[in-house]
Design goal:
173 residues; alpha+beta; four-stranded antiparallel β-sheet; 3 helices; 8 strands; 24% helix
Length: 173
């Protein structure tokens, strides 16, 4: 065998040894975590925080005025890391600056059940909110002074105070 063949074989063996050593070191330092199951939920949890996420408003009927948006509501208990499901009712109120509340969407406990979904961070309630054409048109025409914001308030069927979250809507047309 010539010198070039020996050198190539030695380099391959050395590279293989280096890779094998790195893999062994990485595997030895790894800890397997089962991320398919959430941590056990405490027996007594009740929402004490609400996180509200809202899509940009859209014009669903092509009349030039935004009339719908999707709101996702996450309820949290301080003693549990993931968002929770809880029986109760939800009310959304759309406020337009000095004008105050211009539209309201109430959801009773029975309507809440069908809106619950699972997400990577726990349970989430998803709502497709549509408003009356006249209110949507008014918002588009007047562009009220101050901000337009959506407020969600959850009232538990059991004990506990209502929890609320506000989402400012910067662009309303």
């Amino acid at each position: 065998m010539n010198m070039i063949g020996l050198t190539t074989r030695a380099l391959r063996a050395g590279a293989f040894g280096l890779v094998a050593g790195l893999v062994a070191g990485v595997v030895a330092g790894c800890v397997v975590v089962d991320r398919t199951r959430p941590p056990p939920r405490p027996r007594e949890v009740s929402p004490d925080r609400l996180v509200l996420s809202v899509t940009n408003p859209v014009d669903t009927d092509a009349d030039g005025a935004n009339d719908a948006m999707r709101a996702s509501v996450y309820l949290f208990d301080n003693d549990y890391d993931l968002s929770i499901a809880s029986p109760g009712s939800m009310t959304f109120r759309l406020s337009a600056g000095e004008r105050g509340v211009v539209y309201e969407w109430p959801f009773e406990p029975l309507a809440m059940r069908g809106r619950r979904q699972r997400s990577a961070v726990g349970d989430v309630y998803v709502f497709d909110l549509r408003m009356d054409r006249s209110v949507a048109g008014w918002l588009a025409r007047t562009r009220p002074a101050g901000s337009v914001e959506l407020r969600a308030t959850f009232r538990s069927s059991g004990a506990g105070e209502p929890v609320a979250g506000v989402y400012p809507i910067a662009q309303w047309r």
